[in-house]
Amino acid sequence: MLCIQELTDPGQTTLSSEPELVTLENMEKAHIVQILEKTNWLISGDRGAAAILGLHPNTLRSRMQKLGIKRSSSLL
Predict the structure, then answer these.
(1) Cross-strand bridge partners of residue 73
(2) C-alpha to C-alpha distance for 8 and 5, rounded to whole angstroms
């Protein structure tokens, strides 16, 4: 059973007793970005984000495009 805390934005820290709810799309985007950052933005390969997420690399690239996920130019 899910508790309300599990539905909040993982990056959101608030002292309010009412957690801010986020959309599924925003949760998906945050999760993908988190995995990409942990893999140093490596998408494919055994240690890539796609393998960790259980996706084909092209599927991950497609999701990234749909969600507007791009690596910051300052990280290049």
Answers:
(1) none
(2) 6
